[in-house]
TrEMBL record, chains A, B:
Region ranges (Disordered): 1-21
Protein name, UniProt field: NBD/HSP70 family sugar kinase
Gene Ontology terms, MF aspect: kinase activity
Keyword Oxidoreductase: no
Taxonomy, superkingdom: Bacteria
Family label: Belongs to the ROK (NagC/XylR) family.
UniProt xrefs under InterPro entries: ATPase_NBD, ROK, ROK_cs, WH-like_DNA-bd_sf, WH_DNA-bd_sf
Keywords per UniProt: Kinase, Transferase
């Protein structure tokens, strides 16, 4: 592109012509990379190209084998009222590259491999002790990658990038030792770009790409597990904020005079509604059998709803996605949560927000690592426009 | 553009060539429209065009008289350590069009006129009674526009658009009678696009374009006046959220058992820290002379800081801008506010946020109306990319 820009544009035509075509092609490739399988109609909408230009571009990309076309279920109707009608669907050529997602969780290490056509080709997980060092966790993940590629006969020569989720905040303005260790070890192993982020934020991104908030403009994600974290996804991208801590809903204060928290705040939501705290008061709280468990869940639901109300009045998201083991308690948690959310939000905010349970399973964060790889390419492309 | 797209791109060259040049030119015009005067260096950074392409594009636009070049103060250094060194600055041709900003405030109607070069060419205001009908307020504003254009010899034939701020929420998903009345009356008068939004949100946008948050990526704005409102500005644009209520910080709950609020919530911040409430308890609170006034301000500052902490943990903004008459009390308000914000935010959030007083005066909302007009052109351009 530089070359064709560097000459006086008025003089030549092949440079600008090629540049324009490249821009159009990249726009098509980016849409498929970030959104997965799309019909031609969806692709036209996504790329904002005229049907004529689009069909010319698609024809070229098909002949280059950059794209593949197949009869499939209309992605627009998938999930809705059963199966969608069969239509012609375009995807990137599955052979075009692979993305690797790794989640180095507190108790569990997950590895998921996808191709650029959004097909998940292999996945596996191993348990690990909470005390496991981070160097050891990375090694366990790399061993798991070897097992998976061997058993599935996958070659990583076409690996496009790796996205890794870790526990704890990943600052954008300061060096995080943990993140650096992970990034360096993994990129040394594969020789491709490696991105590291908080695994709850990656789960939020995955829900916005494949899960409960797929395709929405703005989503708040809250994870209620042994820790309480969250993420904010705007326009299909993770919103980091100035310090990479946007969406830290677990550290919003619910009791101004509460105990101080390692995060630097005090009376943080996490302290009151984490599984660690709740199970200390009622061991089988997830079964919600007795009155004590239900009272604890009612109180937790109210507190979560109050925090979500403050967050919703701030960003007025389309969707609030709630994940983590605590959501297994269903209405015992969600009824008081919804009541508190309604009670403490601006009417305009409450009328427009949809609260829903997370749709993805324990591999959400690893999938989010893959989404990070697939959306970054678009980021780079967009920044050039 | 459609025409050149509608043919098979591979065949012709003038179409794509013209299209590419138009895209580059629009990119340059948009940057100057939204950011105001820029040096060539800043313009290259803003448009992400190579110096060679940029200078060719700028030359064309100068010869078309779409741009003007003048010796000016380097905008990058303006304000910082006194005056900036003189440099060559590019702006849109001031004759290229006008934008009109109107603020229909509770007690005051402001009209401000700017050209597309970000030069404010006329401004005026009139007081009005709180009970004044909205039809009457619009009429007062239109009369003021007539007075200003006559006395300054301004012709509105080149008017590009009007941005109007009104009191109260402006829903994006539902029809707001007040907004409709204003939009219809004003567009009938000028025959140009008219945009209506909440005037506090427009003040937030103005601070992000010309004020205390100029050029930052993310800013939360809070206005502490007879009402308490706010706005969220991301990437130089107002973030509306699903229902147009993003940034409604005045309606975040500070007392879960507090009184219900017309907004639909209860125990809302506005109820505790609005000037209406505070002056009812201490008439000369803005002078902060006696202990009673100071105690009230300490309490108000703490509550505002706690609400800002929740909002900052949610979006982790670069800057928090606080405006409104209550900020005239200075440290009496800001010291407890900052202490509460520090006490209740995640370290990563607190380390990266800067809290500052609003820089613009009572014409902020009217200026925001102008910013809405100038940034919308970019929105449309960006949506085409």
């Amino acid at each position: 592109m530089r070359r064709s820009q560097s000459g006086p544009v008025g003089r030549e035509s092949s440079g600008p012509l090629r540049q324009l075509r490249e821009t159009h092609e990249e726009r098509v490739l980016s849409a498929l990379r970030t959104r997965g399988p799309l019909t031609r109609a969806q692709l036209a909408e996504q790329t904002n190209l005229s049907r004529a230009t689009l069909s010319s571009i698609v024809q070229t990309l098909l002949s280059k084998q950059a794209l593949t076309e197949r009869r499939g279920e209309d992605p627009a109707h998938a999930g809705l009222r059963g199966r969608g009608r069969p239509v012609s669907v375009l995807t990137l050529n599955p052979a075009g590259g692979l993305a690797l997602g790794i989640d180095l969780g507190q108790r569990r290490i997950q590895v998921t491999i996808s191709n650029v056509a959004h097909e998940f080709v292999a996945a596996g997980a191993v348990a690990c002790a909470e005390r496991t060092s981070w160097a050891r966790r990375v090694q366990l993940a790399l061993d798991l990658v070897d097992d998976l590629t061997t058993s599935h006969g996958i070659s990583l020569t076409a690996l496009a990038g790796v996205g890794v989720g870790i526990v704890g905040p990943v600052a954008t303005d300061a060096r995080s030792e943990r993140a650096e260790l992970v990034r360096e070890t993994v990129s040394a192993r594969f020789g491709v770009p490696v991105q590291v982020d908080n695994n709850t934020r990656l789960a939020a991104l995955a829900e916005a790409v494949w899960g409960a908030a797929a395709g929405v403009g703005s989503a708040l994600y809250l994870r209620l597990s042994y820790g309480v974290g969250g993420g904010l996804v705007l326009g299909g991208r993770l919103f980091a904020g100035a310090g990479g801590a946007a969406g830290e809903l677990g550290h919003i204060t619910v009791d101004r005079d509460g105990p101080s928290c390692p995060c630097g705040g005090r009376g943080c939501l996490e302290r009151y509604v984490s599984l660690t705290t709740l199970q200390a008061q009622c061991n089988d709280i997830l079964e919600a059998r007795d009155q004590k468990a239900r009272d604890l869940l009612t109180d937790a639901g109210r507190r979560v709803g109050e925090v979500l109300a403050a967050a919703c009045n701030t960003v007025n998201p389309e969707v609030v996605v709630i994940g983590g083991e605590l959501t297994e308690t269903g209405d015992h948690l969600f009824k008081p949560l919804q009541a508190a959310l309604r009670r403490h939000t601006h009417t305009q905010v409450h009328r427009t927000v949809r609260v829903t349970r997370a749709a993805l399973g324990p591999d959400a964060a690893a999938r989010g690592g893959i989404a990070l790889v697939l959306t970054t390419a678009l980021d780079q492309e967009a920044s050039r426009l």
